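Objective 1b. Sequence-to-structure analysis of 1,4-alpha-glucan branching enzyme GlgB.
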Amino acid sequence: MNVASHDSAYILPPETEDLLRGTCPDPFAILGRQAHGRSDIVRAFCPDARAVRLVVQRPRSAPVERPMRRVDERGLYVGTVPAGARYRFKIGWADGWEETEDPYSFGLLLGDLDLHLFARGEHRDLDRVMGAQPMVIDGVAGVRFAVWAPNAFRVSVIGDFNVWDGRRHPMRLRHAAGIWELFIPRIGPGERYKYEIIDAERRLLPPKADPYALAAEQPPATASVVADTSPFHWTDEDWTRGRAARQDSTAPLSIYEVHLASWRRPAGDPHGILRWEELERTLIPYVVDMGFTHIELMPVMEHPFDGSWGYQTLGLYAPSARFGAPKQFAAFVDACHRAGVGVILDWVPAHFPADAHGLAHFDGSCLYEHADRREGYHPDWHTLIYNFGRNEIRGFLIGSALTWLRRYHVDGLRVDAVASMLYRDYSRREGEWVANIHGGRENLEAVAFVRDLNATIAELCPHTLMIAEESTAWPGVSWPVADGGLGFAYKWNMGWMHDTLAYMGRDPVWRRYHHSEIMFGLHYAFSERFILPLSHDEVVHGKGSLLERMPGDSWRKHAGLRAYFAFMWAHPGKKLLFMGGELAQPHEWRADGEVAWYRLDQPEGRGMQALVRDLNRLHRAVPALHRADCTPDGFDWLIGDDIDNAVFVWLRRAPDAAPVLVVCNMTPVPRPAYRVGVPCGGYWRELLNSDGAEYAGSGMGNGGGAQAEPEPAHGCDHSCVLLLPPLAVLYLTPEWAYGG
């Protein structure tokens, strides 16, 4: 040490050498203000500075500048100030002078209650506590950083503001929770940053992005960004006040699933991506015109790899910079609500990628993931699995969910890959998984997490939707937690989707041998609250588009798909359709392309779009088509045994509402003079004919309806004689109830 004086103020602590080497775990023991009798010692570590001066604030007089003595050539400076006096630094760099307060002059930043709740996994405001939070402390504006890394030896904040030098801003460890914290004055929103971590073995890790960051750089860049956390001016009060009714199980729910990047490309740019403002001008009016009640966005949380479609997420608190800034995302949600459209986000707590800048081995240990590969590695996606048994991990994930629902007013989350969370042997062979404490295959920790997640959201975000993509027969997925269920509002009906798509994909000649594929779903249709999903998963990986999966020539393909949509909209359960399906897109979805908008120049494409629009209109306007979706009293079979003709007939009902007769002819053969029982006499008006000319069908039908005769059939006192168009579905309702 080049100590030029024997003055005790310049005697350095023994840990100083560690600080200078960048390996000091407790910088506050050396830097900042240290009491020294009637004066205070101030130490600053400013590598590459040419000079450092103390600017001392004096009562009732102008500040006084004092030079600090450089006591080590690596950049350690020492000075003194009157005891308790306020001061700041004036630092001379090669390109000029910087004035700033001392980051090491501030006291403890997080409260004991914050630390206690965090350690228990019960903190419900982590988006306002962890990560980078712009704030004012002791009258000084800056950013408070907080990151969980309990097994690290040293953690520093690095960024443009300190030329990414980990020696400049080492953090303080709060041992009670394993959280490192630091307040850096005079920086604010827009700053790029990461954490530089030295692990317990004194190894320098790759720089880590902030798990709690509210914003990030646009990929392929990987830095976190200090977000503007000032309040957003919401204008969706009418929507939020009415959300309970709009999202009740008795309400119509028709969801348009969207991959934002490939919905529509900017004009003249086949590789460009529409930003939130452009999506507000284009996507929202389209969804409104089509009559969908909700948009479901494939993951918009920050993710490093475009090819994962967002399902390999690392920034669970940050809207992806691909589409704009966080406040622009908030403005998009606000605009959706003003237009009467709800917003559901796909959310992925089941796994995360192993990118070096992310959560994997975050502090040098398996912190977020399991250490045992049999528990911590997903063989399907080559990703890592969260350790749901850790309080802090459960809190981290629940905090993310709450961020989207509260900060951004999102109306629901569709939780991806729930089945992979519930079973320890999911996609694993014998010997590749670890049994639970009872020797079973159920992941008890994940089950506890899911219940905690849904119970918390039910309490703090009532009337929002938690939707499970769950593909097994796990009981009670959509039952309340208090009743032993998992607590989701809805479950995707994957069995219905697989069975009915298999049926529709068969040549009509052979459908008589697969009658049960249509019938079976009604055996369990009311065991859960279901959404019927025709999602992106059904039009990728060589499966072909929905249109391609229909058999026959072009006419039969289009007629079959129209019949399938009309069948789906009349079936118990809420509806979900992936973008492009409404245009009868002829090719499989490609994430690097866009929806086949050219289909609107073709009669078949326009006709399919018109059908989906009308199905949504009827779904919302006719109570029998939605009000009793989740209860067995909303459905009555009339004909389920006409195997030879592949004809299915049922009634949809709702309390205090007219019934709807649904007649499905799943062959290309017209069925003239087909008698169908109906529950009352009079004229039954045709609400929809999927073979109508307006949908590019043959136009064959019943002239707008049929008169019910007092001739019993199918357990009813009256019946209608109908012409069943080929590959078509009819909706009819009593004339007295017809509303247009």
